[in-house]
Automatic annotation (TrEMBL):
PANTHER family: EXOCYST COMPLEX COMPONENT 6, SEC15. Residues 399-747 form the Exocyst complex subunit EXOC6/Sec15 C-terminal domain. This is Exocyst complex component. The keyword Glycoprotein does not apply. It comes from Malurus cyaneus samueli. Keywords: Exocytosis, Transport. It holds the Pfam family Sec15_C.
Amino acid sequence: MEEMKSMAESLPEHDRILQEIESTDTACVGPTLSAGRGGRGFMEKLDACIRNHDREIEKMCNFHHQGFVDAITELLKVRADAEKLKVQVTDTNRRLQDAGKEVIAQTEEIIRCRVQQRNITTVVEKLQLCLPVLEMYSKLKEQMSVKRYYSALKTMEQLENLYLPRVSQYRFCQIMIENLPKLREEIKEISMSDLKDFLESIRKHSDRIGETAMKQVSQPNRMIRPCCLLKISVNRILESKNEITLKRTFEDEDEHEEEVLTAQDLVDFSPVYRCLHIYSVLGDGEIFENYYRKQRRKQARLVLQPQSSMHETVEGYRRYFSQIVGFFVVEDHILHVTQGLVTRTYTDELWNMALSKIIAVLRTHSSYCNDPDLVLELKNLIVVFADTLQGYGFPVNRLFDLLFEIRDQYNETLLKKWSGLFRDIFEADNYSPIPVANEEEYRIVISKFPFQDSELDKQSFPKKLPMSQSVPQIYMQVKEFIYASLKFSESLHRSSTEIDDMLRKSTNLLLTRTLSSCLQNLIKKPHIGLTELVQIIINTTHLEQACKYLEDFISNITNISQLTVHTARLYGLSTFKDARHAAEGEIYTKLNQKIDEFIQIADYDWTMSESDGRASGYLMDLINFLRSTFQVFTHLPGKVAQTACMSACQHLSMSLMQMLLDSELKQISMGAIQQFNLDVIQCELFASSEPVPGFQGDTLQLAFIDLRQLLDLFMVWDWSTYLADYGQATSKYLRVNPSTALTLLEKMKDSSKKNNIFAQFRKNDRDKQKLIETVVKQLRSLVNGMSQHA
């Protein structure tokens, strides 16, 4: 093409156009002719070119004409054969068409079957996709009907994630998809309803659960830890039940006490597990945890609220503890078999709150209890309660601290109880030595009280023991108190030394407070006479001696030697000494009261001119009473009897002196002085007769020395000697006080004036009256001098 273009460029313009016309496509001839239409020469060139081409065509036709003629001739020959062939073909075609009609019908049937087969295959494929969905949905409905909700949720999850996306274009799948959220909500509501039923039922039956746990802990030789008794496998969740059931009655438990019960035997926890798993699968695990904890906190507050009458019976306390143990057993079980529903921090916080409430409740209600047996049963319940919860990992040290507070209260109730026992013993005692008729009776007494007396052992039966019946009874009751106090110390997980110390302290309280108070009250009772007081002193002496045996008794039951550094000692010695001193004081008081009673019946004629020549009757009765009384004092320690005798004589002397100096007594005659002197002489004779052995010389007579010197002064009328020797240590009337002498002398002066109406004409009487007045003046001057000196 490039060569032709180069050639065209060398030709003239018309030749180039003609060449283009010949060489280009017929579609481009028009533009070429338009380009060359402008000249005549071009048309000539064009005509010449046409003529040349016509000549070339003619030459070519002439060259091929014979061949063309021959071909036409041959074609005409073939025409007849073609007609025959056409007829044959037409006939063959007709016959073929006739024969193909059945084939066509069969083919169309085959095509129709193939279409049906293809449709069936498509349907089967689609059904194969849909059948698992329908099967899973049917399975879901079945699981819902049998309340296997956790499995139903898993089935829903498979439907949504695996099966439904494959057939989501079908309408029934859309209906399923719309129903699944409704089913989830239904499952949530049902599981929550089951949980509420579970919580309500567990609240009602927590006391039985706790009772079983505490019973298992309290059984002897129990080797299984309580926390192991309620462990179960999560795989054994009972999904077939939607509410808690107690699977065994407690009558069956009594028949099979040796059988260890587990959680499955008591409680169906499946509602909790089911609800937890359902809410976890639904993504609302936190909501469920908060709800569960909130409801359990409310139940804890209800469980911790005691009945107002709980303190009246041990069953009230037992039910209270059983409910609490049941509550925390359930919580501990939930803690170990679930993950996250409750945590150790949550249970510890709940327990600390409960523990504070429990301690406050026990403090309040135990304070109302006055029965030591009930307090002891309460203590045993608290120990079992604490041991049970300690087995589940809850700290219980504060409960044992509380037990020490309750121990003090227990001791107080024991002290009150033993106070009544002591009072009854003292009331029933006859306060006379114990008679023993034979060896057997003697052995019985000795078995109750550690009495030893070699002198008494030498005596033959029958004989009398110095103490009264109350002594061995008191001793036995003190030992019973020690046993009762020891009962509380059991199971407190304390050492023998601590128990020994507690026993000694409680026994000291019994001796120094309770027994001492009972003795003091006994001594002060008005019906207790001198004989009883003497016996009380003898009794306290023997009880004091028995204190060492009580210490040995405590050491034997605690296996702690008394030589231990920290071992406390019993304070019974001081208790019985104080009681003995009180009894001695009461003896002195009652003796003085008895003396006062005799003094009150004294009936002196203070104006008598002469004495009767014999002592007054009341005084002789008094002396006889004192003599018989002091004979009873032979069993008392010597100093006690001597002190009582001296005190009685001194009181008698003071009473007689007060009788002379009584302000209501205005006049005393010399005859009355003489009669009074006779009575004092009898007192001195009594003192000199040694009513109580042990006095040295005239020690007892010195009790009447003031009276004796005063009476001698008036009887002898030795005023000159008194006034001359006054103030000197060697004075004969050293014990006569001037004021006393003055008082008595003025009473005699007034008596002389009254009886001297006609005697004033007698010179001796006038001289005596003047002497009295002179002595009175001198005595007044001595009294005034004493007051100024003071």
